Amino acid sequence: MDARAPFLRADDVGALRGDGVFERFLVRAGEPRHFEDHLARLARSARQVGLAVPKEASWREAVGTAIAAWQGNDEWEMRLVCTAGPEEGGQPTAYVLGQQLTEALLRQRVEGVAVVTLSRGMVSGLGAQCPWLLLGAKTLSYSVNLAARRWAKEQGADDAIFVGTDGLVWEATTSAVVAAYGRRLVSPPSAVGILDSVTVSALLRDAVRAGWGAARENLTVADLLSADGVWLSSSLRFAAVNALDGKTLPAHPAQEELAALATR
């Protein structure tokens, strides 16, 4: 189907309430990047929200169909989306969506980003105590994330990093946070209440193989300001943070090496 053609029912709870889960990843030269990890995370998110998603075989078939039909650039993004379906009940709504990468995203990969920190309004570590908050699940409810990004842009920045009320760094609006201290990479653990980043897991694993140190550790804003380099990392971009809360951050001398590892 053409992505612009009508598809969802007007009473689909994905549209009405954001009740659903999704995954988003890069496709390069016909190969979906970290596909198995994204399928596994989709299943975990679905369990958290109590949603029955289609079996993996159905997703694989749909992804294969989308890749075969794609006529755009060699590198593009794909989403796997599943909502709880019509409000009156019935089968879930599930589909894959292919889209071109935006010019803004491609530019940020090269030029980096300016970022502000914003309070998430919650103490870190609430996920285990309050599972109904769905912390760590990749749901369709991104209104807070988009509001934070709009606020950041109103302040002259490109994106925002959420911080817990205890001062611990969480994640950016659609990306994980990675900091470097010399040749050691650090990213916050999912236990603070964030999505377990597929891309960062792969980056840390590949970095260790390349001779870097790597760890999942708590970070504060002060830690980011004292780092030798800070990045926002997602399936679609690995962007250096050039400025944080108005303060200029250094460019890490191994920027190109890390970018190559992050987009492998």
Overall description:
The structure is a single chain. With 264 residues, the protein is an alpha+beta fold. It has 2 domains: 13-101, D-amino Acid Aminotransferase, Chain A, domain 1, CATH 3.30.470; 106-262, D-amino Acid Aminotransferase, Chain A, domain 2 (Alpha-Beta Barrel), CATH 3.20.10. The chain contains 9 helices and 13 strands. The strands form 2 sheets. Strands 5, 6, 7, 8, 9, 10, 11, 12 and 13 form a 9-stranded mixed beta sheet that branches. Strands 2-1-3-4 form a 4-stranded antiparallel beta sheet. Strand 6 and strand 7 (169-172) form a beta hairpin. The protein starts with 12 loop residues before the first helix and ends with a helix. The relative contact order is 0.14.
Number of helices: 9
Q: What is the CATH third-level topology name of the largest domain?
A: D-amino Acid Aminotransferase, Chain A, domain 2
Domain count: 2
Percentage of residues in strands: 25-35%
Summary keywords:
single chain, 264 residues, alpha+beta, D-amino Acid Aminotransferase, Chain A, domain 1, D-amino Acid Aminotransferase, Chain A, domain 2, 2 domains, nine-stranded mixed beta sheet, four-stranded antiparallel beta sheet, 9 helices, globular
Summarize it:
The chain has 264 residues and is of the alpha+beta class. It folds into 2 domains: 13-101, Aminotransferase class 4, branched-chain amino acid transferase, N-terminal domain (D-amino Acid Aminotransferase, Chain A, domain 1); 106-262, D-amino Acid Aminotransferase, Chain A, domain 2 (Alpha-Beta Barrel). Helix content is 31%, strand content 27%.
